[in-house]
Structure formats: C-alpha cells, structure tokens
Design a protein that fits this description.
Low-confidence stretches: none
CATH superfamily of the largest domain: Tetracycline Repressor, domain 2
Helix content: over 70%
Strand content: under 5%
CATH topology of the largest domain: Tetracycline Repressor, domain 2
Number of helices: 10
CATH architecture of the largest domain: Orthogonal Bundle
Oligomer: single chain
Radius of gyration: 19 Å
CATH class of the largest domain: Mainly Alpha
Number of strands: 0
Number of domains: 2
C-alpha cells in the first residue's frame, strides 16, 4: 500500500473518531489536521473539505458493510434456504453495527450534511444495500418462504431502519450480538413468513 493511501486511511479513522466524539459541526478541519499530526494545508491535499471527508467515511462504511453481508451469504451452501440467508445477513449486520457504536448512528444522521454529488453517491450506495434486502425478500417469495403479499420495498426499509439503530441501545453486558441477531431475525422473518 502506498504511503498516500496509508495517510488517507489514517485521516479517515481519526476523522471518524472525532465526528463520533465531538459531532460533525463541532469538528473543524484544523481539529482533524491537529489530531492526525499534519498542517491544515496538507489535509486539504487529501480531502478538499470536511464534507468530502464525511462522504469518504460514509462510503467506506457502507461499502465494507455490504461486502461483509454479501460474502457471509455467499459462503453458505448452495442449498441454503432464504431463512438461513436472512439469519446470516441479520447476524453479520447486527455485529457490524454494534461494533461501529456511535458512528453507526452518526452515519445514519449525517447524510443530510452532504451536498451534491456526494449526497447522490451516498444515496445510491444506501439504495444498493436496501436492494440486497429487497432481493432476498423476493427470493423468499419465489421459494414460498415469504408471503407474496409482503411489499418488498417497505419491508426492506423496515429491516434496514430497525437494524441501523442497534448501536443506540446495544449493551454487551445484557446480550450478545448473536442473541440480538436471532431475536431480530425471528421477529422480522416470521412477520413475513408464508
């Protein structure tokens, strides 16, 4: 990996932490540069604005999230039922969101701070994640595991919305991400089950 790529990654990690701890509006480019250990002018070489930094963080997070969920489902045997795929996708998502903590909630709440073209780019990524759930629901309808009357667009938004805020209330001392994933999967899937 090139030094510039390592620096970019470090800037994103530090910025993500600052946004999470201090909030997007309260964090300045100077704060970020100081935390990374570089001059403000050098930071602008990597990212033109605070908004560009936010967009890069959000893009990285959702791309990694979708890749992990799809990989987990793809690693199932070819005979896996939609319910098994759903269980794995929910479990992986709960773990990712719980580990992201406050930044998962912040990611959901900071989309409004983006301008074009970053807003549309992030929206497309979120739509692709939503499409994963829609496709899984449609597959379940084809296999007879999910009722045909379930509106896939609304059901997928309910799933994504419910999972997004796990980080707000998750407490590891009360239950594991596996336990929470099983509860979510049972409630959500059985609500659509044929």
């Amino acid at each position: 990996m090139k030094k510039s790529d390592v620096t970019r990654q470090r800037v994103l990690e530090v910025t993500s932490d600052l946004f999470s701890r201090n909030g997007y509006h309260a964090t300045s480019m100077r704060d970020i540069a100081n935390a990374v250990g570089m001059k403000s002018g050098s930071l602008y070489y990597y990212y033109a604005s605070k908004e560009a930094l936010l967009a890069a963080i959000l893009n990285d997070r959702i791309d990694a999230h979708v890749a992990k969920v799809k990989e987990a489902v793809a690693n199932l045997p070819s005979t896996a039922t939609v319910r098994e795929k759903f269980d794995v996708a929910i479990s992986v998502t709960v773990r990712i969101i719980a580990e992201a903590g406050d930044m998962a909630v912040a990611s959901a709440q900071t989309l409004a701070h983006l301008q074009e073209p970053e807003y549309s780019d992030q929206s497309e990524r979120r739509q692709a994640y939503n499409q994963f759930w829609r496709d899984l629901i449609k597959e379940g309808q084809r296999t007879g595991e999910i009722r045909k009357s379930v509106p896939d667009a609304i059901a997928s938004m309910i799933i994504v919305g419910a999972l997004t805020f796990v980080a707000e209330w998750y407490e590891p001392e009360r239950s594991t991400t596996e336990q929470i994933g099983r509860i979510f999967s049972q409630l959500l899937f059985e609500g659509m089950h044929n």
